[in-house]
Design goal:
heterodimer, A: alpha/beta, Rossmann fold, 7-stranded mixed sheet, 33% helix, globular, B: alpha/beta, Rna Polymerase Sigma Factor, Chain: A, two-stranded parallel ribbon, 9 helices
Chain lengths: 206, 358
Amino acid sequence: MVPDRKSIRVDLQLIADMIEPHSRVLDVGCGDGALLDYLVHFRHVDGRGIELSTEGVNASISAGLSVIQGDADTDLKDYPDDVFDYVVLSQTLQAMVQPKAVLSHLLRIAKRAIVSFPNFAHWRARLSLGILGRMPVSQTLPYQWYETPNIHLCTIQDFVALCRELDIVIEARKILDTRGRVRNVSTTLFSANLFGEQAVFLLRKK
Amino acid sequence: MEISDFPVAYQTYGELNADKSNAILICHALTADQFLAEPHPLTGQEGWWDLMVGPGKTIDTGRYFVICVNILGGCMGTAGPKEINPDTGKPWGLNFPVITIADMVRCQALLVDHLGIDKLFSVIGGSIGGMQVLEWASMYPDRLFTAIPIAAAALHTAQNIAFHEVGRQAIMADPGWCGGDYLNQGKNPTKGLAVARMAAHITYLSEQALHRKFGRRLQDRDALTYGFEADFQVESYLRHQGITFVDRFDANSYLYITRAMDYFDLAAKHDGELAQAFKGTSVRFCVISFTGDWLYPTEGNRHIVHALNSVAANVSFAEVESDKGHDAFLLDEPEFHGVLKGFLDGADEHWSAAAGKT
């Protein structure tokens, strides 16, 4: 008997809970395939993945998942319009060379996109940069400035503004703490932007 | 031109199950043959994919029924220029029709029919074997569940054609070739065929692999001889490769098969758009390339993946880290074997579910 639930990271669980069973899902930057594996086995989705690292790809395929070695910046353009129900971009947007183009592609190839990213306007980050004058380093932003893959960090406010510019509807917005647990304190965008360490957005086209 | 009632030589490993749902067709490479997991009848050497196929191995013959067919145009029993033309009672020679990868696949499909198998669980092949896999998926999408092209390409590039042309010219320049009629004249272009093999063999290895294996080391001598003997180990190795090859391979077969590869361009058959070859496909693909393969490099494999993505096909793609060159798919590469096994196991779950089995 297969258990009906398996333990995955809290933030991945949150994303999984946004996805309807039996849908078609593309996980962009799927890492070792943990989320995809969960979705395929417990949500019975038709799941695909793209991953840049060879280790991640090999681990995913070895686990029986359909994953290609590729780069979201260049490989999303090949997919036809509307072929997926959901596309997931978890903690990857900030490492894209062209995040705006990637976001547009996500909602071209899928009906809905789920995007999560670290919030650069969290009060600790502001404290670090604004008062201490140092680039923030934290659990959600674990890299020193000279070795970070995060070349396009943004704030929750920035992201909302970009969605508005691209005519993207925000269906749901979850604010998370460092460990990926939902914070319910922040009802306004202003406080979300100040107190959220990470954010997950469920998006659709207008 | 059409040929009919022709021989097809093949080997099988493992047992076909009652509902004939566990068959895997393996397409061999240019100079290999159907003896993939047993000693070769001519050379006595172990099967070319002994590492991969067998009981408990990556392609487990305890579980799967593995079929390997000597390709059309080959020289190990299937119809080819060496075989007897029934109309003349003499070897076909250059009267054998020029064949394509698609012809090879049609020939294999006839055998699969003959074995009573409607749908193969998988078609797997490296190099020209991978080209056949792509052609299979394109021609008979309903007859295979998964397709695994390894170190392959959807077309032959100018560089690929150029290397083959060197090999063919070496054969045809040998007086023993006799305009292709050597079998009737009791001759054999062994020198030409050996040179063709030597040139081709270089393309199967990476620069690093050659360097690691031989460097500039000398062969059975302490100093250069300042002559044209095989001073270097690499020369001796290539000569050996050439000389042993002619004992088991037919020169005209080499011409026909390399020509079929040169003519291969899957996109050209579909209005220049590779994706059209796979439109609407339900085949699950696993494309695998190797970092050190400069003959059919990752770029060409990625081109196949992009085409498959653009028709929303179910595709996996792994580039395996290896500096051993094109031949890596024949060697002990644990990462490669892990990917292949994982893909097959994953696909098997879906295949069983689709077949309504438990």
